[in-house]
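Subject: Protein record for review, amino acid sequence with backbone structure tokens
Category: Structural biology, sequence-to-fold work with a learned token vocabulary.
Format: Residues in single-letter code; tokens as whole numbers, each standing for a residue.
Body of memo: The sequence and its backbone structure tokens, given next.
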Amino acid sequence: MNEVFKANDIPLPIESQTQVEENTRFNKGFAVQVKIFGDVIERMRKAAPANQEHIQDYLASFCFGDFYTRSGLDLKTRELLTFCIVSSLGGAERQVKAHVQGNKNVGNDKETLITAITHCLPYMGFPRTLNALACINEIFPEK
């Protein structure tokens, strides 16, 4: 990658895209979660049993604080990528549905999601693509 960057006159080292510090990553991550998913995040946190609250904290701090707050990609692109990646995992349909809703909330439409998942089809296979499509159709019913 460094060779390609040098060949394209991209100065190295690349400037850090980190936007959080250890003491701000949870709050900033939680704010991004709420921006994408709304008050469902607060309800999930309140509903979590005491012995599982740390998982909610990890999700807010790590996934959303450390990664979603980075510069370089806009929120719509990050959420679309997350949808594709989670869809490719298989067995994560609950999270796929959540990220379909998240995509809808940040302004990605049904056609964008179908186009993205179609592009992923040769890499993730028909079963996972069809599962993702079912999740899309649940959140964006056909008219």
